[in-house]
Amino acid sequence: MLFRRALPEDGPHIAALVAAAAPSFGAKHSGAVALVAVDAGALVGWIEGVLDGAYTGPGAPAPPPHGYVLSLVVDAAWRRQGVGTGLLDAFVDEAREVGLAWVFLFPDEGEDVEGRVRFFEQAGFEAVDDPAEQWPAMGMWAQDAR
């Protein structure tokens, strides 16, 4: 399995993954970092995020900038094979390389939010202390700053 930065020619494959797995995904975000998972020449997963985000909730354990995972999509045939975790690890590595201490995300609150929360917990993300939210942000240290 190869994890690399997305290339322009990956666009149609990414769009197909998004259409199949996340049809409600919104517009692209400026300044985003996109990484893809490729196996035997086939694009099987994609992650997009920013490396200049700022979680402003009450539980942010480090000052901004923060890494912020916007989207994670894995082809249905490749789920439960480490692709999503590998993409998250690759994004956290990108955050670490630019000196960020912390990465966060918001699990999609749609159907099976509990399953997504479990997945992110197994990948090393922890719920951020935010008593006002049922499904708060989740975060992970990019640097050993605890």
Radius of gyration computed on alpha carbons: 15 Å
Choose one word for the global shape.
globular
Tally the beta strands. 7
Helical fraction: 10-25%
CATH homologous superfamily name? Gcn5-related N-acetyltransferase (GNAT)
CATH hierarchy: architecture: 3-Layer(aba) Sandwich
Q: What's the total helix number?
A: 3
Strand content: 25-35%
Estimate nothing, just give the exact number of structural domains.
1
What is the residue-mean pLDDT, rounded to a whole number? Answer: 84
Biggest beta sheet summary: 7 strands, mixed
Order of helices and strands: EHEEEHEHEE
Task: Label the structural class.
Answer: alpha+beta
Unreliably modeled segments: 23-31
End-to-end Cα distance, whole Å, is 31 Å
CATH classification, class level: Alpha Beta
Main-sheet strand order equals: 1-2-3-4-5-7-6
CATH T-level fold name:
Aminopeptidase
